[in-house]
Amino acid sequence: MNRRETDKNGSFRRFLNNIKGRALWITVVYLVIGSAWIIISDILSKAFFEDSSDLVLVSIIKGLVYVIVTGLVIFTMIYKALKEVHQAKQETENANEELLKSIDEYKHLYIEYSNKQSLLKSLISTIPDHIFYKDREYRYISCNNAFTDFHGKKEENIISKNDYEIFGSAVADRIRAIDMAVLNDEKEVRTEMEVFDHEGNMYIFESILTPYYDANKHCIGLIGVGRDITERKKREEEVIYLSQHDILTGLYNRLYLEKAYNQLDNLENLPISVIIGDINGLKMVNDSLGHKYGDQSIKDIAEILKKCCAEKGVIARTGGDEFVLILPKTENKAAYELIKEIAKECNSHLENINNTFYASISLGCATKVTLEESFDKITQQAEENMYRQKIFEYKSQHSAILTSIKKTMFEKSFETESHAERMAVLSRKIGEYMGLTQDEITALELLSNLHDIGKISIDAGILSKPGKLTDDEWVQIKRHPEVGYRITQVSPDLMHISEYILSHHERWDGKGYPQGLKEKDIPLLSRIIAIVDSYDAMTQDRPYSKAKTLAQAKKEILDNAGKQFDPVIAQLFVEKILS
Length: 579
Known about the structure:
Elements: H1 3-17, H2 19-48, H3 52-126, E1 130-135, E2 140-143, H4 145-151, H5 163-167, H6 169-185, E3 189-196, E4 202-213, E5 219-228, H7 230-244, H8 254-264, E6 272-279, H9 282-289, H10 291-309, E7 314-317, E8 322-327, H11 332-351, E9 361-368, H12 375-392, H13 394-412, H14 417-434, H15 438-450, H16 460-463, H17 471-478, H18 480-489, H19 498-503, H20 524-538, H21 550-559, H22 567-577
Antiparallel strand pairs: 1-2, 1-5, 3-4, 4-5, 6-8, 6-9, 7-8
């Protein structure tokens, strides 16, 4: 209702209060006029008329005049009063109409406000973030569904209560300190806090708390919005972890190592020993067997280093095959004792029947005894010592690696050491009968042991599969001569038999693999090994076939002479060696 309407209603009320006064006023006027008229008319009548008959007529006329005059006066006064009454009534009706309109408008605004409040409540309740309101006494005024669901409580069990009544003092003390900072300083506060749900699961929440004000800009409470950032924090931790760690081994990386140098380079940590390590034969393994096996070697070495040094300092993988150990408060002698311990663990790893691959690392050490010495210089000295050790151990390392490869080959396939020994015996007999040199016969015996070394790269399930191989499986099988060639090419002691290994599945008719050589283009020793290998395979039980008799084996070799086998060597083998 506006001010004008209020004034009108006030005037009308005042008018109603004066009705009695108006009525009394009209009565008084009527009496005064009537009394004055009677007195004055009587005096005048007696003064001008003495005859009684005239006095009667005068009285009649006087009465008529009195009635007319007083009627006019009363009419005038009553008309004015009634007019004011009518006007007041009209104003009242108008005011009532406007009042009704105002009431309808108020109802409409109230409904609209209620709808907006319901919509806002619904929107807030669907938001996954936790939203809550508190008054200045730290009591909850309202909260959304996410908040109640997380804490396993109904809204009515939260409203009008404080944190001490809901969560207990252990949690409430932390919350109250934050709330006080918001309300006392009247400023926004951002926090990260570990919060437990009603089932005891821990989450990390990022909360924003801000004061809110009434129309007079008085702070009357706070509004809080909390968001679950547990997964984000995990991802952040993963990013930090990955930035400082090597993915393959879980050890620290070069980036972290630079920080470690700066953190440890102080008087309290002297002497500081640095051990540099380089995996032996990793290139040979990667080039010959593939990076899968090379990665396994790296992981095995990393586990050995963790086992020996985890409690003593920082271990980092700084390159493909390179490792660095920083050992604070460690004398040079103690560092070399640790190197011996690592070497011992590597040997134990090889001897363990459950470990199928060789793990070996060359290590060198240097020690920083004064703050003036730079880590760069100490690291360079350790690296030089490591390379001296690697050169010294070179031959024995390669021998051990090849032994490990053979061990893995025998465990993955049906090939056995007895198979290799039988082949060596038969190959020597053929070589001697053909008049080969001692070097060639020795090469034949070595070839008998290593001709299938490339099978280490083939899945064990394919090698022992009892049924027919698929086309893709045959592709893998046919790659093993090339793998064996690469393995022996990187070893100076075996390089001379690498061509024989590459060609031991070639056929006399040119239908073999991998190069499709034919007849005498195939190296002699490869032709001999092809016959001996096939014979031994025929006469032993395999997953895919039963052993043949001696007669059956002889017949099959002769049947394939000039096709698969060198016809001259095949006939010599059957008639001279097997007879």
